[in-house]
Design goal:
35% helix, alpha/beta, 2 domains, globular, 430 residues, Aspartate Aminotransferase, domain 1
Length: 430
């Protein structure tokens, strides 16, 4: 595989950006080699600066559920941007996208558009604190909620802990308001409520944790969280920035039929452009400024180009059997990967839900918590990633990240991918 142009671009980028990138995982540190500089994409394929072509399963980390440069999305973007790219004032497109979402999602009544998933979660946390008049939040090890200070906290020692900062620049005072417990551990949650009675504003969880492996939770556990929050007048936040509109139009709330108090969304609702959103009941959302006393603002919130792209994409997602077909493709891919292997591999699992999949080098039948992911197994993914690139298949450059199947993936793509996976795995697990 040619890399000369990507290597030159990376050397130049290192003069301008920390580590040569504008988001850490792009640096290829965990998989080795030089980051690929992507030049264009169409459908299920991308091309880098050296002209290498790949079948893409990263999809810009999830939002491109229709594939790259979808004709309807691109047409909506062009039509809108010709009228202006930003006004810092209301447009009808905000109403149109909101109506499209709310009329097809019974779990939220009012929403607020923002510009990223991180911003959506940060705003949801502030809303929960303002609504409950409490300061502490409870999160789970293995769930990622963006890079705001309160949430860049990892587990410390012990069953219930305030944890440790996972980034320099996060004050200890922020860490001390964030309680961290393990996923899938009811006793730990109960102990947290016992120790910090009437102090916890919210529990925040990825109901389908998909940023540190794919840690599929039991419905009973999520229902337990709903009930203990209700009992303690604590708000339950579902962070659906990744899985929202990905496993179904109503996301995990609809999949499990559990009503959270606040839901955060991102990625897919912008059709590939920067956008985020949080929503709740009309009563909870009435606490947001200018109606209420919880302040949140954004100059580019509800950007008309992003709204138009989101309308075009989500309209396609509402087509009959859209999500069923995505899941069928995902299962077809997984089945063909295993049937293409020449030898039995006992420590290989591919977990999936909807159109999200995760390659894990483990003998466990299911992963529920971050502690169950063997850090040493990343040495296999490092080889797998390299060998897949050589065979024209692109995954996100981290063994902790998931892959995504999109509408544009063809049966031919999936068969070629399965063959490439089988060949790459034979090398990775030697």
């Amino acid at each position: 595989m040619k890399r000369e142009k990507s290597e030159a671009l990376f050397e130049k980028a290192k003069k301008y950006f920390p580590g040569g990138v504008n988001s850490p995982v792009r640096a290829f540190r965990s998989v080795g080699g030089t980051p690929l500089f992507i030049e264009r994409g169409k459908g299920s394929h991308i091309w880098d600066a050296d002209g290498n072509e790949f079948i893409d399963y990263c999809g810009s980390w999830g939002p491109l559920i229709l594939g790259h440069a979808n004709d309807k999305v691109i047409e909506a973007i062009k039509k809108t941007v010709e009228k202006g790219s930003s006004f810092g004032a209301p447009t009808a497109l905000e109403n149109d996208l909101a109506e499209l979402i709310l009329s097809n999602n019974k779990f939220i009544q009012k929403i607020r558009f923002v510009s990223s998933g991180t911003e959506a979660v940060m705003s949801a946390i502030r809303l929960a604190r303002g609504y409950t008049k409490r300061n502490k939040i409870l999160k789970f090890e293995g769930c990622y909620h963006g890079h705001s200070d309160s949430l860049l906290v990892k587990a410390g020692s012990g069953l219930v802990t305030f944890g440790n900062t996972s980034s320099a620049g996060v004050p200890e005072s922020f860490v001390n308001e964030t309680i961290v417990v393990s996923l899938n551990n009811e006793q730990a949650v109960k102990q947290a409520f016992s120790e910090f009675k009437d102090q916890i504003a919210c529990i925040i969880i990825e109901p389908i944790p998909a940023n540190n492996g794919l840690l599929i939770q039991r419905k009973e556990y999520l229902q337990f969280l709903r009930e203990i929050c209700t009992e303690n007048k604590t708000l339950l936040i579902f962070d659906e920035v990744i899985n929202g509109f990905r496993i179904g139009f109503t996301g995990a709330a609809g999949y499990y039929n559990i009503q959270p108090d606040i839901i955060t969304y991102g990625k897919i609702i912008g059709g590939g452009l920067p956008v985020g959103m949080y929503g709740a009941s009309a009563e909870i959302m009435s606490h947001i400024s200018p109606e209420g006393d919880v302040y949140q603002a954004g100059t580019l919130s509800g950007n008309p180009v992003a709204m138009a792209a989101g309308i075009a994409q989500l309209t396609e997602c509402l087509k009959p059997n859209f999500y069923e077909e995505l899941e069928r493709k995902t299962q077809f891919l997984i089945k063909n990967i295993f049937s293409s292997l020449k030898s039995q591999v006992s420590n290989l699992k591919i977990f999936s839900i909807g159109s999200i999949f995760y390659v894990a080098f483990t003998d466990k039948e299911v992963l529920r918590s971050a502690e169950e992911i063997d850090a040493d197994s990343m040495k296999y993914f490092r080889v797998l990633h390299k060998e897949l690139l050589e065979r024209g298949v692109y995954l996100g450059p981290s063994g902790y990240e998931v892959g995504f199947v999109c509408e544009a993936h063809t049966e031919s793509d999936l068969i070629k991918t399965a063959k490439a996976f089988a060949e790459a795995l034979e090398i990775a697990i030697k």
